[in-house]
Amino acid sequence: MDDYRHQGLRKRLVEVLKSKGISDAEVLAAVNSIPRHFFIDDTAFMELAYQDVAFPIACGQTISQPYTVAFQTELLQLKKGMKVLEVGTGSGYQTAVLVHLGAKVFSIERHRPLYMLTKDRLMGMNLRANLYHGDGYKGLEREAPFDRILVTCGAPYIPLDLQHQLKVGGRLVIPVGEGEEQRMLCVERLSDVDFATKDLGSFRFVPMLQDKA
Ligand code: SAH
């Protein structure tokens, strides 16, 4: 159920995101319309769905903080119809934001139970995204190249496969760092061989897993 109370809470969340510097009208509109409480498994946490915090979902993972979702999405500078690869489907909330913005979304999740849970959830909400259970370090060769790639877990380094699956002119948004904190990097592919990287500050993510089936 999504009632006027939830809608009111979303409006407040949009104001919080604005006050923290998010200005992209389409990103704010997506946050305003997607029922984030549908992405939280434990009904005990429903009240927290519209606070600007991250919290636990299945498989010891987290649903990213709304500010982080909005910040990363804004960095993507998406246009309708773009082909986007997301690494780290998690709850599917970020996926829903990308779909709402008109992207053709491909998303990979490493934890099988989470992949299955989120697949059902998005189908139930009639949100069309292509979900995969697999290893985000490898990207998705068969659907490459992508206009945009978004990584939503903390990567120890920038995986080469992801860089190679970017279109020329495309961008990769990825938090990089092995400790508690990561740097939010935005990598633009300038030509076949040239990439330009910008550092957009410090964030915290769950780690990007290696060697896990
Ligand atoms: N976008 C999600 C964020 C979830 S947290 C949301 O808004 O809910 C990051 C997710 O990345 C977790 O679900 C984790 O299981 C997944 N992940 C970690 N390592 C991965 C890898 N190598 N490939 C794909 N997904 C990975």
Strand order of the largest sheet: 5-4-3-6-7-8-9
Ligand inventory: S-adenosyl-L-homocysteine
Mean pLDDT: 95
Beta strand count: 9
Span between termini: 35 Å
CATH topology value: Rossmann fold
- What's the domain count? 1
Instruction: Note poorly predicted spans.
Output: none
Biggest sheet record: 7 strands, mixed
Radius of gyration, CA atoms, in whole angstroms: 16 Å
CATH architecture: 3-Layer(aba) Sandwich
Query: What is the CATH superfamily?
Result: Vaccinia Virus protein VP39
Indicate the CATH class. Alpha Beta
How much helical structure, as a percent, in the residues? 25-40%
Helix-strand makeup class? alpha/beta
Apparent shape? globular
**Which percent range describes the beta-strand content?**
15-25%
One letter per element, helices H and strands E, the order comes to HHEEHEHEHEEHEEE
Q: How many H/I helical runs?
A: 6
